[in-house]
Amino acid sequence: MSTMTAPTLSHRYGQPTQRRKLPASFWYVLAALGVALGVAFVLWVQVSSQGNPTARDIGFTLTSDNEVDVTFEVSKNPEDTAVCALKALNPSGAPVGWKEVAIGPYADENGNGISVQTVAFRTLGAAHTVTIDTCWIPENK
Asked: Taking the complete model, does pTM exceed 0.90, yes or no?
């Protein structure tokens, strides 16, 4: 039996190439680019959400198995009319009521467009909770 020497990997496939180390300036530029993109994203979010109304649940009362009163606070530009969608849910989380409410131009004593609204609406069954689904400014002002 003859002994064969196995060729080394470098003879068979060639020498591996040495990776060049990236210069420090590359990492500084990459970090600056990351920070600039982060700042641009935050500014974009801020600008795109300006003027959109926001709402906050205050509470609700079940007046009967088929009717609820919901109280909520809306914050918007004082001159805008907003529409808020309210939804009532049964104990399993299925919707049993829906109402869209228009909130017209309003300014409080400080000139802010923050108002508290109380709305009654009918449901298809007993509601377990009532909440604000969303608020928006209608397209055709």
From this structure: no
Phi and psi at 85, nearest 5°, equal -100, 125
**Rounded alpha-carbon distances, angstroms, from residue 29 to 22, 33, 42, 43:** 12, 6, 20, 21
SS3 category, 136:
strand
pLDDT tens for 112-124 read 888 999 999 999 9
Rounded Cα distance between 8 and 5, Å, is 9
Give pLDDT tens digits for 60-115: 999 998 999 999 999 988 888 999 999 999 999 999 999 999 999 888 787 788 89
Distance between CA atoms of residues 92 and 56, nearest Å: 23
DSSP 43-65: HHHHHHHTT--EEEEEEEEEEET
Cβ neighbours around 10 below 10 Å, total: 9
Phi/psi for 27 (5° steps) reads: -70, -35
Nearest to 115 by CA among 45, 27, 55: 55
State both tokens at 131: 């909440």
Query: Does residue 3 sit in helix, strand or coil?
Result: coil
Question: Is the separation of the CB atoms in 87 and 55 below 8 Å?
Answer: no
